[in-house]
Amino acid sequence: MALKSPRFASNRQLQQAAVNSPSIMRNTVGPHVAILQQAFIDLGMDMNLSTKKGPPDGIFGGETESRVWQFQARTGLVRDGIVGHGTMTKLDELLPTLGPPPRPLPPIVMSHKLNVHMRSIAMPAVPEFTQLKVMQDVFAQYGIQVVNLSGQSVGLKANEQLALTVVDGDCQWDQVSDEQRLLETSGSKQFVGPNDVTVYFATVLREKNGKTLQGCAGHPPSQPAVMIASTAVDKTTMAHEVCHVLLGSSFAPVHVNEDANLMCAAPVCTGNPAFLGVAQLNRIFASKCLVKIA
Ligand SMILES: [Zn+2]
Questions:
Q1: Is the overall model pTM greater than 0.85, yes or no?
Q2: What spacing in Å lies between the alpha carbon of 240 and ligand 1's midpoint?
């Protein structure tokens, strides 16, 4: 099937993508990618990273991949982040001319739910609900609704208070120190489902080498939980740590500084909002912590 929209029809690579020979995917570079990026802008999606220097940069990186996935989700296509027959045909249909489409794209449907509970023994530098809102915005972009089911300021006994002034323990997956265990058993467990994620706001988190952490996603296997230090200054700290829980311990790469806007790809995500790559999304949607709602 030949593409009809002049913006796409005039490009050979896009014509080829429309018949999957080949499709266009991450790490492709060229004017055809810039045409796709402009199409997503015209459809109302922001391409802040790809347009940092002005016009769309034609680099199919994490942001573009994320937008392809979102476009597919919003138009009922297979969500793989790859521009092939289905995606090209739909773009051609929705953008018959240059400029914005005759009809706006449907919003993304919230297809999954993630329940979280917040337990706090500290006054975080970035308030609990600010971090929660940032996390909700990150996941909502992909149809994941983060629901805060309960919040509680945890009252500690004097000896517990003393023990948890600084939570010592190396942040390791599936292993927790005595202090981490004490924190993760503090507070009410009422209404906390087995696949709900509990977010503990701690005072200071310190590893054996003396290094302090903004957060840690280490938790006993049967109890999805993260810890956030009151000293954490990044608004994305909760989103980052919870993302680790959803990705699981074996997901790679994390913390490689691949892309500062991609959740968990860098030690600190500076995205506003941050995005998730398709490899991450595939893993996240397979997490037992997500509940399908639509
Ligand atoms: Zn991390």
A1: yes
A2: 6
> Would you say domain 6-94 falls under CATH 1.10.101.10?
yes
The packing angle between helices 62-74 and 85-94, to 10°, is: 70
1 CA from centroid of ligand 1 (Å): 45
**60 CA → ligand 1 middle, Å:** 25
The rounded Å distance from CA 244 to ligand 1 centre is: 7
Domain boundaries, the chain: 6-94, 112-292
Q: Smallest Cα–Cα separation from 199: which of 132, 136, 145, 139?
A: 132
Domain 112-292: give its CATH code: 3.40.390.10
Ligand 1 centroid – CA 267 distance (Å): 5
Q: Report the half-sphere exposure of 41 (CA within 13 A, side-chain side).
A: 18
Residue 22 CA, ligand 1 centroid: distance in Å: 35
Taking the chain (294 residues) in runs of 10, the rounded mean pLDDT of each run is 92 98 97 98 93 96 95 97 98 92 91 97 94 96 97 89 85 83 86 95 89 89 91 94 94 86 87 88 97 92
The rounded Å distance from CA 197 to ligand 1 centre is 16
